[in-house]
Amino acid sequence: MRAAAETGISIPKLCSTDSLNAFGSCRLCLVEIEGQQGMPASCSTPVGEGMAVRTQTERLAKVRRGVMELYISDHPLDCLTCSANGDCELQDMAGAVGLREVRYGFDGENHLDLEVDSSNPYFSFDPSKCIVCSRCVRACDEVQGTFALTIEGRGFDSKVSTGPGENFLDSECVSCGACVQVCPTATLMEKSVIEHGQPEHSVITTCAYCGVGCSFKAEMKGNQLVRMVPYRDGQANHGHSCVKGRFAFGYATHPDRVLKPLIRDKTSDAWREVEWDEAIAFTANRFETIQAEYGRKSIGGITSSRCTNEEVWVVQKLIRAGFKNTNVDTCARVCHSPTGYGLKQTLGTSAGTQHFDSVREADVIVVIGANLTEAHPVFASQMKRRLREGARLIVIDPRGIDLVRSPHVEARHHLQLLPGTNVAMINAFAHVVVTEGYVDEEYVVARCDPESFAEWREFVQRPENSPEAVAKVTGVDAQQIRAAARLYAGGPRSAIYYGLGVTEHSQGSTMVMGMANIAMATGNIGFMGVGVNPLRGQNNVQGSCDMGSFPHELPGYRPVTDDTVRGTFEAAWQVELDAEPGLRIPNMFDAAIAGEYRGMYIQGEDLAQSDPNTQHVEAALDSMDCVVVQDLFLNETCRFAHVFLPGTSFLEKDGTFTNAERRINRVRPVMPSQTGMAEWEVTQALANAMGYPMNYANAAEIMDEIAALTPTFSGVSFDHLDAVGSVQWPCNEAAPLGTPVMHIDQFVRGKGKFFPTEFVPTEERTTRRFPLILTTGRILSQYNVGAQTRRTPNSIWSPEDVLEVHPHDAELRGIVEGGLVAVSSRKGETTLHATLTDRVPPGVVYTTFHHPETGANIVTTEFSDWATNCPEYKVTAVQVLPASRRTEWQERVHGGKAQVVRI
Ligand code: SF4
Ligand code: SF4
Ligand code: SF4
Ligand code: FES
Fold first, then answer.
1. Facing residues of 497 across strands?
2. For a pocket test of ligand 2, which of 19, 162, 176, 794 has the largest count of ligand atoms closer than 8 A to its C-beta?
């Protein structure tokens, strides 16, 4: 079938589709092969040298018509009113085989009365239209890796099943939609298509949720988005998606969106809706007044990892050139800043080493502090495929994440360490590498800095770093650590993937360097199947960091203190730039409380919900004279804001996002801006109002400036991206198509540098008063603070954050399944419902932070990474006790004051 297709001959088919393995069940693709008996199925017959095949003969036509007659005799005859009319392969094939009549009539036994399953909020399953081609089952198995579907029964009784007595909603299904996409009939169908009809045109764009950066065809009817179809040529996702990207786009047109600017003198006043001109003038005036009274450095801003590179660029430029200081930081501070620091120090660049496809060649995969199936689901599917092919898996995580054991995937080792002991664990791995002869001496001699290697080798072989010593600290058996370390070191191709469970610790940067150390020592950087790979949380974390959002770095991670680099920007921007690194987010809060920092431009970030130690954050925000929030919805931070500048959803944006693998993807507008302004235009207007001229005509011009001033982006332009699809930076003259794998012949910094990584326990310790460790994470159906996903039907799966408690800890405290509990730390207290599970070990409790009502960050502390101030979200000492009612603290924070969110 494939060979025929490549020569331009199409063969009728139903059960086959090129995203799935050949199956050979529908018998529509039969062919005749010279010298062979019978009529083999062309989809499952390998082509051979000299094979002579007939794809159209009288006999074949007759058999195919007969097959089709049987299908149609058990199919509703409602094509004209069917939602798939015009986009149905069964209909197409009936035409292709020339079906004119059904000799069997329609009165025989059939499936036409089977009940429709509408339980899933996004798609329906109408078994009366099913031809039992198994495409859906195979998509769920092969592409998604969830194995939620099966064909139940035999012969005439065969039917697609989600499990005994279960509907889609209650089954193992994770609503990725892969089955819906491959279904050749209207059996599995998006409800949005049923409601709006078949789309008329489409635009290729990029998902705005997580750092996987999936490409989609946004299929439209006029300005109505009908469905998002994962784009086959998307180089990050290869035609797959998760529930968020495919289905959870309704927030973009949710009635909660604020489309007009709002201003107010004091936060106790009601908001006043104004035109853009007034809002811009008001903001500029406030900022200028503050600077006149308190000095140039009394204001600043933060950029958003949810916004495009172009939008981020203009905000950091506004701060540097318009505010004339370096008080710029980004929400990436609270997630992956240790990645930037650790990888820059060791390898020379602040980004992951590989592209996603690299995992296809990994023999050993180590997943540390990352819950891929929830937070990076499309890459998780790709990784699971490799694991099913035989790659071996090591999971280092306090929690029993799905990857540890799921259908056809089982980790060889799950090192269930105590939160906060990552560095001790990586040192034990290094100890095994060094003392058991696993160092790739040739690689190290050729590519690494000898002095730092010698120092590191001496450090890691010390007895305190042995698995036996570390076992006491981590709570993991020494033999298990040794076995896992040997597995990693033996590879031959070993790859590390990690997430916020690595970075959001007081030693986040140390751990990143620790992973780079062992990857270099074992020669596991610089080719396919290996590397050290951060899984970025938000869609444009990589990009917002690349765009110069840090107070000490200009775009491209170059120090503001470097006169030459700064001179380039000064020449291009025609302004003198501050050479002194400004305030990081936590320093901004401290300075605000001290009365020195009084105005802040907050691009797309809900500081009051997402940053740690809520009381401190709120006190800081409350003490400022001008807080400006640019966002889609009035969020928690808006309680302290004086100006609200309505933002645009990804469906209205024109620009680029850079995903976790450094891939720069185009984001194209599929509908006009609902606010009348692009976000970069708003920032530009503010810069102009404050006396610094900005005159971009469009987003492409901003990218041209980025390319001109950032060496790793020098080959990037909208035209180039439109021509080649996407590129991974560095993209320049030497690598016009980008750089999928970095550090191939040598490290970006020249010689790879080792750093001793002494384990220093966090100061956040359990005590008699707070005897448990709280750690946090994400869930598939919700996203970060939930501002988007809570405004979609995704909330059906996770209407609230719950606290996971080990049954042993629960019993000690009288906590029951579903009971309300109070979680208290030395910083604050919150209440939520408990669920009892051995996913968490005794002594550890876990929750998500998607719902403002939970206020998980009320309890998190001020501790942060020593190098970057990334908050230590993953370790908070708490007590958990049954609570019969909302506590006083909870009432004070949320009673009557929290934003009401309509779902
Ligand atoms: S639901 Fe669709 S894909 Fe699945 S077996 Fe039926 S017709 Fe085929
Ligand atoms: S939506 Fe995804 S997980 Fe659910 S049954 Fe279909 S393929 Fe499987
Ligand atoms: S995996 Fe991430 S980028 Fe891809 S569709 Fe899901 S949320 Fe969007
Ligand atoms: S397409 Fe070959 S048997 Fe169905």
1. 367, 533
2. 176
Q: How far apart are CA 531 and CA 493, in angstroms?
A: 9
The pLDDT value given to residue 889: 41
Is residue 886 very low, low, confident or very high in pLDDT (cuts 50, 70, 90)? very low
CA distances from 607 to 303, 516, 802 (A): 12, 31, 22
How many beta carbons lie within 10 A of that of residue 578, not counting itself?
A: 19
* pLDDT digit string, tens, across residues 657-695: 999 999 999 999 999 999 999 999 999 999 999 999 999
Q: Which residues contact 454 (CB under 8 A, 6 or more apart)?
A: none
Q: At which residue do the structure tokens 């730390």 appear?
A: 825
H-type helices in 796-897, by residue range? 807-813, 888-894
Closest to 72 measured CA to CA, from 98, 29, 109, 101: 101
> Distance between CA atoms of 13 and 54, rounded to whole angstroms?
15
d(CA 899, CA 889): 17
d(CA 540, CA 212): 10
Length of the chain, please? Answer: 903
Distance 838 CA to ligand 3 centre (A): 28
448 CB near ligand 2 (under 6 Å): no
User: Using omega within 30 degrees of 0 as the cis cutoff, is the peptide bond preceding 586 cis?
Assistant: no
Token code pair at residue 2: 């494939």
One-letter amino acid for residue 667 of the chain: V
- pLDDT bucket at 236, cuts 50 / 70 / 90: very high
Closest CA to 710 of 846, 545, 592, 855: 545
Model-level pTM? 0.92
Structure confidence at residue 588 (pLDDT): 93
Q: How confident is the model at residue 817 (pLDDT cuts 50, 70, 90)?
A: very high
CA distance 796 to 791: 11
- Ligand 1: residues with CB < 6 A are 130-136, 160, 182-185, 187-188
